[in-house]
Automatic annotation (TrEMBL):
It is an enzyme of class 3 (hydrolase). The lineage of its organism: Bacteria, Pseudomonadati, Bacteroidota, Chitinophagia, Chitinophagales. Residues 456-643 form the Alpha-L-arabinofuranosidase C-terminal domain. Belongs to the glycosyl hydrolase 51 family. Residues 1-19 form the signal peptide. The keyword Cell inner membrane does not apply. Its EC number is 3.2.1.55. Keywords: Glycoprotein, Hydrolase, Signal. Transmembrane segments: none annotated. It catalyses: Hydrolysis of terminal non-reducing alpha-L-arabinofuranoside residues in alpha-L-arabinosides. This is non-reducing end alpha-L-arabinofuranosidase. It holds the Pfam family Alpha-L-AF_C.
Amino acid sequence: MNLLHKAGLSLLLVTQAMAGANAQTITVQANKPGVAIQPTMWGIFFEDINFAADGGLYAEMVKNRSFEFSVPMMAWKEVKREGLKGKTLINNHKTANPANPRYASITVDGQYGLSNEGFRGMGVKQGAAYDFSLWARQASGNVKLRIVLVSPAGEKLGETTLGGLNGEWNKHTASLTATKTEAKAKLEVYFEGNGTVEADMISLFPKDTWKGRPGGLRKDLVEKLAELKPGFIRFPGGCIVEGRDLSNRYQWKKTVGKPEERELIINRWNTEFSHRNAPDYFQTFGLGFFEYFQLAEDLGSTALPILNCGMACQYNTGEVVALDELDPYIQDALDLIEFANGSTATKWGKLRADMGHPAPFNLKYLGIGNEQWDVQYIDRYKLFAEVLEKKHPEIVLVSGSGPGASGKEFDFAWKELKKLNAPLIDEHYYRPPEWFFQNAARYDNYDRKGPKVFAGEYAAHAKEQPQAESRNTWLSALAEAAFMTGLERNADVVHMCSYAPLFAHVEAWQWRPDLIWFDNLQTVATPNYYVQKAYANYAGTNVLPITANGKFLTGQDSLYASAVLDKKAKVAYIKLVNISSQTKNITLDVAGIAANKDTKVETLVASDLYSYNTLEKPKEVYPVSSTAKTQAKGWKNTLAPSSFTVITVPIK
């Protein structure tokens, strides 16, 4: 049975897949490089959904460290043990610190303890060091601290002490080392002595963060991103940008400066889905715009920040700011450009320097709105564009065509944005696998002189099972691989692409599928990740013609294909997708090939279309590499059933 039929796809596709089942000759004209591929072609899209920031990429292990959640003691509990005496009172001093007004006043009579549960626990590793810190002052008496990591059963996993508190607010630090590996540890802080301590920003970070930065990013998650070699990073979202209403929108200025002075807000995914409520989901903005820019720089990626355009999520309140009151939103855009690119003599450039980065971040792109639609979006984008194009013509503005891949709102957005000469339009598509198989030729007939395309959010949504990672099946990844041949072939129109969402915690997700899954100790790359990695790692500099019987391969005989040239490396990358349940014997004719040379063949294949990777079994779908000898004419190759293959070919 053809695997497309097995997957429940349309009869039309099955018929197309079975037609012309004989072996095909595929011609690659490696001596005729075509349009240039943008360095930004394959990138990543980050949004704080699925505990991707707090509890994920941002390595803070203490939840509600500053007592600013809607329930001030959420995630905190008194340690119940005989002999412990004391109490905690939450004070609100908004006049002194409006961004972070709450702090805990802890009175102790001998010994008293508080425990923090972390983000579905705290992952600690044997022999690893952890940095504890808090802001505190001794309001009265004489109190010292004892900091302990404990297992769910109460076993001590590490301990340190901290003293030296005085009557002034200061940051105090200590370090401790874990004696065992535990995914569900918790932190206990004991106050010993007599008196009252006022405390805020109680924090625990692994010492081994990305690039060793104190209070930084979780190293293993960033390493997964680095392996993708992303051409750009789009941040901070997504629907996060919009907010449920405008008061809940993402405001970049509240995410920069000292972490203890950044204003926490509720995460809009907190109770967005009734079946996946997460009332403990907030945004501390420890991971803010400075850290996003820094991460992009670390990875050699172009930063693509997205700003609110004066519109809240149209699926929620649909609230908009009046057009004659849009100036502060436009000013935020101007100030962001200054923060990223301005000299240290400017207000926002100086703040960037004060945060440790005197050199500019060289911002080139700026997104206006996330996926808004209809006339209210066009009206607001127009006002942004009028100002930004005049004051900063060097910045490429990214607009949006709404949440759908077609339809009335999509067509309206394209028509109006074309009139405005919008340079780059963001398209989103979350669809079943069959849509991706059917749309590999989507961009073949787009206007070559019109706006360029940013495929900003896409993912094939296959069937799901209870296990968190189950929706990231090989079927969904195979469908994306087939579709992406069309993105690559049309690189003169498509300038940016990114799968979405990026991260998900296996115990705290709101949305799936997602590219990378993790718990408190481990990560797992999905089959979709390996498809994205193959395209990004074998991106090339120019598109090459690749045809069978004079036509692009967009599903004929169950095959999809694209090819690119890397002028610097002097190789061609040939990408071949076989969606049939049968092995395909093909013949490659590659003009310009260096014959009889070793070439690398990397293949992704699975035992079943619904195979997926898990934390326990991370390599159910994993690339396999082999070598072959090239031939200029009549080069025989075999494509496994339901497979994605990349062949690296040396060029003369």
